[in-house]
Amino acid sequence: METKKTLLMRIYQILDKHSDAEHPLTQQDIIEYLDKEYGAECERKAIGRNISCLKEMGYDIESTRYGSYLASRPLENSELRLLIDSVLSARHINSAHSEQLINKLISLGGRDFKNHVRHVYSVKDWEKSENRDFFLNIELADEAIESGKKIAFDYNRVGADKKLHKSDSHVASPYQMLLHNQRYYLMLRDDKYGKVGFYRMDKITKMRLLDEEAVPLKSNPGYARGINYRTIATSMPYMYSDKPCPVTMKCPLFMTDALADWFGRDYTVKKQDDHIIVTVKASEQAMLFWALQYNANVEVLSPPTLRQKVIETLQKTLDMYTK
Q: 4 φ, ψ to 5°?
């Protein structure tokens, strides 16, 4: 026989798994599920008593003449669908972990939720990282950040065989994990370079927690007041850590959508005939790549050093195609 406390949880689990507004469960239905799924016996009057107890505890259970059902869950199906899509499209999570995560999310949905997501649920169709240390890295980095300790790890690059290969070993003080441009980064101060940088979590392997005290974030130049997440989001279209500077560009009017996607609202615009003059404060190194991405529509006006780098890079590219 189930104990009273266990029976209460079993009834909740059955309502969670098998019921919704379109599929209320009678007391007899619940008795049958208890026997089938848990090998538990229960009298009919105990079902009603336990459902009343669950309602008193704050669970949103509705009862009608057709039966009882769980009226709401911690996450709505639309919210679960959004999370599942996020896991599917996250290239930094390998296939095995993606499948495990999605199955856990599906289990939080209603009776027919799995049928509704079946058409999008195919992990093998998505490009995924092969790094199986990813979630272990998150746990170790989080522990190091909380305890103020340094970490050691190997950093890898993808070779011609499409597999990760060690490029260097690092000892560092970790500060924060950040999702940026669909990539998951670890913000840290590398002992080797003595400055703050951003390392891809999916390229880190063999992470170890050290007993050495981490260098405090606020002791790094530019971080006396901590992390400015807005600056990271808008001043670093790519995760280069050089100091942001004003960059002025000439763009056609239709570039406003792309500007908003990359820089939010942290830029100024002046109309000039059929063009706009845009100024944004951002990493010069990152803006070189950004300007090249939109090279047919973006002209860098200042700073002169960035304008010259764009010219040199475009000339080098032209030389490759005209030799």
A: -60, -40
